[in-house]
UniProtKB/TrEMBL annotation:
Pfam families in UniProt: NLPC_P60
Name of this chain's protein: Lipoprotein, NLP/P60 family
Keyword annotations from UniProtKB, A to Z: Hydrolase, Lipoprotein, Protease, Thiol protease
Cited SUPFAM superfamilies: Cysteine proteinases
Species in which this protein is naturally found: Shewanella violacea (strain JCM 10179 / CIP 106290 / LMG 19151 / DSS12)
InterPro entries cross-referenced by the UniProt entry: NLP_P60_dom, Papain-like_cys_pep_sf, Peptidase_C40
PROSITE patterns associated with the record: NLPC_P60
Family: Belongs to the peptidase C40 family.
GO MF annotations, alphabetized: cysteine-type peptidase activity
Length: 134
């Protein structure tokens, strides 16, 4: 099922970022993830601020699997609360990629990012193993 969910999620690459957006007309990060996971009957909260409810399913970044949820702080890494998230699309030695809807001017909208070649490691909070996928 992991490859199915990633294939489904990738079809939205390029969809524009829209704050509060939860459809292919425009997504914010949590709206995008909820849309993708709901397609596979996996319920997740609508906003990243509610993601700590899922933290009972946390795994280490080394245990991350394709389809898992990766959670970051907002743009200020000193505030250790969820503010951004993505879906893991690839894992390997020194490799981790994820899809997300970004509000960054550099990567605006649904995009795929190489975790280790980005600024996200300093904002990392958790990987959440998604029940029903793994």
């Amino acid at each position: 099922m992991q490859s199915d969910i990633i294939e489904f999620a990738r079809q939205f690459k390029g969809v524009t970022y829209q704050w509060g957006g939860a459809s292919p007309k425009g997504f914010d990060c949590s709206g995008y993830l909820q849309y993708v996971y709901n397609h596979y009957s996996i319920a997740i909260p609508r906003t990243t601020s509610q993601y700590p409810k899922l933290f009972g399913h946390k795994v280490s970044i080394k245990q991350a699997k394709v389809g898992d949820l990766i959670v970051f702080t907002g743009t200020n890494p000193r505030i250790k609360k969820p503010g951004h998230a993505g879906i893991i699309t690839g894992v390997g030695e020194h490799t981790l990629t994820f899809l997300h809807s970004s509000s960054s001017k550099k990567h605006f909208g649904v995009t795929e990012t190489d975790y280790y070649k980005s600024g996200y490691p300093k904002r990392f909070l958790a990987v959440i193993s998604m029940p029903g996928l793994n």
